[in-house]
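Please produce the structure of this protein holding adenosine-5'-triphosphate.
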Amino acid sequence: MRRSRKKNSFGLTGGIGAGKTTVAERLRQLGAIVLDADDIARSALDPGTECYEKTIRHFGESILGQDGRINRSELAKIVFSSEEERQILNGMIHPYVLDVMFRSRDEAVAKDPGSVVVFDIPLLIECGAYRRMNKIIVVVSDDAIRIRRVMERSNLSEEQVLARMERQITQEKQMRHADFLIENNLGLKELYSQTDSVFEQLRELVR
Ligand code: ATP
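Below is the modeled complex.
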């Protein structure tokens, strides 16, 4: 049973601004079930969860907003300026996120054994979850293009984008794990056509 569920599991990753979310959206339109690690991680910090309690215990109440919710930009400031703190936060959140994702996968496959389940995980390689995937899709793009995209999207300065890129593993390291490599240096049309071709191959793999 376990092995057959691994068959349906496809990891999707890529560095900041490479185009991973755009690929994930396209895969969803094509019929894949996309599980978004960032979305689940956000709910991990909702009041009342075990992660919420642990996070406040470690980082202190200064990260709380007046409404009792964790102030995410405060927390981001802390973890983006300290590798050690970032790892501590990840150690609290990752197990929760992976657990939710694998349970969702199991439900999807129980309903439809032909499901293509895509695990959209920015830290797929770093957290080791890539080992539990049938195949890995990596989205890459030239650094200059990634910087420009993120600056436009998020209103960050070039220095801020570079600092975030430097905290991630390199695209070269991600590429070593790629069964499918999507190079996103051109327009959306080219990106979608590569994505469509990957999806067809995933469908074949679960058939
Ligand atoms: P992050 O890890 O920061 O979330 P990401 O890899 O998920 O980044 P996206 O959110 O998909 O990247 O893309 C970053 C921005 O660039 C988005 O605003 C997206 O619409 C845009 N973008 C991505 N690929 C292309 C493309 N080929 N042509 C034009 N715009 C693109």
